[in-house]
Specification:
Elements lengths: L1 E2 L42 E2 L4 E5 L7 E3 L5 E5 L4 E5 L5 E6 L4 E7 L2 E6 L4 E6 L3 E5 L13 E2 L5 E6 L4 E6 L7 E4 L5 E6 L5 E5 L5 E4 L5 E3 L6 E7 L2 E6 L4 E5 L6 E6 L4 E6 L4 E6 L4 E6 L5
Parallel strand pairs: 2-23
Antiparallel strand pairs: 1-7, 3-26, 4-5, 5-6, 6-7, 8-9, 9-10, 10-11, 12-13, 13-14, 14-15, 16-17, 17-18, 18-19, 20-21, 21-22, 22-23, 24-25, 25-26
Length: 295
Amino acid sequence: MVAAIAGCASAATHPAGSTPTPGPATPLTTPTAAAAITLAGCPRPVTRAALHVVHRFGFSPDDIAVDGSGRLWVSARTANQLVTLSADGSALEATTVTGGPEGVAVGGSGIYVAQQTLNAIEEITPQRHTVVTFPNRTANAGIDGISIGGTSQTLLVPDSPDGTLIEVSLVGPPNPQVMATHLGRPVSATVAPSGDIFIASESTPGLVVLTTSGSVRRIGGFTDLDEVVFYGGLLYVTELNRHDVVAVDPASGASVVLTSNLPAPQGLAVTASGILEIADATTDTLYSLPTCGVA
């Protein structure tokens, strides 16, 4: 079901009797910079008050993804909605997604959403259906964040209740494959151009890398992360316990704070031009901040 957005700062209008539907998604390619940026290229940290406000919601946003056209896809778990925004933050439309929509991923022509209550993945466009449902034999909350794998043909699913990373095929049967275990409560994953996969957890080990050779190595001393993205040689993570966004050197684990005083930085994505999009679930606001080395 697709519905007009309620509670957003602005919304597009549609002809009477028409039903707005999400436009086709453009494939999201891994952003790369001309040269790798180091932590020395990061600006001085700023507080939330200095961030650019992209959009204010009338409900609590959770996760966010950016498609190849620059459109923003924001989930709202408690409102059971997936909101589409233009690149400048103006509201386009909202799609009802039941089951506690959390993680969002854009791959090929498809939009995928993790339903936390159902512990399932639903494809929203172009053909709406359940991709896969995972058993949750624990008392823990279900799947949180999801992301596209090294190609647009697989989905990376941190199975939050079970502490594993699972790869799901988006071509033919889902055929889930466990890629890593003992990850605490993994909630986000991102792939670097090298093929290494970085996984963020809300508990120890915090942040790890799954290398192309299959080894797993902890990065830094993080203990309560919610998101991780890769851009231009650096990782960017949201820390729930410290209420900030941090740039991380994936080789050394060294890090610098970019912005602080975010009550609940639940969503993080990076645009093709190197702009971080940050969804805060307490202030009901989408903020933006340039990555290191980006003016």
